Amino acid sequence: MQSISPEIIFRGNDAWKKALPQIIKLTKSPLILGRGIHTNSLRNKIINDLKNQNLNVNSVDLQYDCCYEDISRVKNFILNNNNDSVIAAGGGKVLDSGKYIADCLNIPCITVPLSASTCAGWTALSNIYTKNGQFLKDVALRACPKLLVYDHKFIQTAPSRTLASGIADALAKWYESSITSSTIDDGLVQQAIQISRVLRDQLLIDGEKAFKGQFENNPSWRNTVEACGLTAGLVGGIGGEKCRTAAAHAIHNAITQIITPNKFLHGEIVGVGLLLQLRLEEMKNNNKLADQSAKQLLLLMKQLNLPTTIAQLGINVFEDHNLEKIADFTCRDKSEIHFLPFEIHKQDIIEVIANFEQQRIKI
Ligand SMILES: [Zn+2]
After folding, report:
1. How far is residue 68's CA from residue 61's CA, in Å, rounded to a whole number?
2. 19, 91, 159, 290: most buried, per Cβ within 10 A?
């Protein structure tokens, strides 16, 4: 079974307003799930609008990440309050938690992304972390959300850093799926890869204009946020589990194992993983084009103020055995790194990262 997309999607400037009549048909007692304080006022608007429609509304905030501690606390709350749906309004971790909890309890999930940092509002997948933000595993859900509300006015209120992060994560669709899945003899997978190529081209053209420009009457902004929040999800929906992630996400997952005082966004870490993946392709697969791709990507990442080294993520790989820790986790048995069409060993990761970090420090 494959769940390609949410059942209903509302998008654009008044998406939330337009979605309201549909939401009322779907739920009488929703739980609103959120997290950060800077999105509180948006969630209050959502809660008030629903109360004005005579719905019985509860709300809970995540305390940490999309982790089992928060998940079981929210599940118990829903069971005690008889909520009949989850409305997850926030970033990727909130959306992933909401989808996971709704899936466990067999109630509908409505996703309302409040930034363009992720395609989690679309997908039938949740990434589970520890409460300290260390990646544990991804879980395939039975279906995509029942309803996705992609309200541009909500997304405009998010910091521009979240847009940059979403761009890096959406770009990964092409760089990862084209290397892991290009030999799979399945038309839908091949079409998904081609959509991710067009998605990459659009982000290379529009990404900087979207990041630096104003929202009003800026088609680049509109196209970019929809590319990150919608099209990236569609690629995953059509390609399914065969349209796989690869080294960039494997390295992301490994980097999250090292706890740092400042937290970085998912796409910010994936972006660094992409640069490292291209270096691996060059060294281990003799890919002559990888260096050119890396230069093109690096230019865009700098325009978007994205971190371009592990050092810029607040981790010195040459201290505390960090390099070994990252290499160990990247090459563990269940890692996506093994979806690459060439063999990768721990020593390859150590070499590539050490060279990469040393070179970039000198620049
Ligand atoms: Zn990702």
Report:
1. 14
2. 91
Per-residue pLDDT tens digits for 144-202: 999 999 999 999 999 999 999 999 999 999 999 999 888 889 999 999 999 999 999 99
Distance 116 CA to ligand 1 centre (A): 12
The alpha carbon of 270 and the centre of ligand 1 are apart by a number of angstroms equal to 7
Q: What are phi and psi of 28, to 5 degrees?
A: -115, -20
**Ligand 1: distance of its center to the CA of 169 in Å?**
5
pTM as predicted:
0.96
Residue 304's φ and ψ, nearest 5 degrees, are: -95, 5
Per-residue pLDDT reduced to its tens digit, 297-336 = 999 999 999 999 999 999 999 999 999 999 999 999 989 8
Q: What is the DSSP string of 140-195?
A: E-SS--SEEEEEHHHHHTS-HHHHHHHHHHHHHHHHHHHHHHTT---HHHHHHHHH
Write the DSSP assignment of 181-194 as a string of letters.
HTT---HHHHHHHH
Q: Which two tokens stand for residue 48?
A: 């008030």
- Tell me if residue 84 falls in helix, strand or coil: coil
In order of 253, 279, 342, the CA distances from 286 in angstroms are: 25, 10, 11
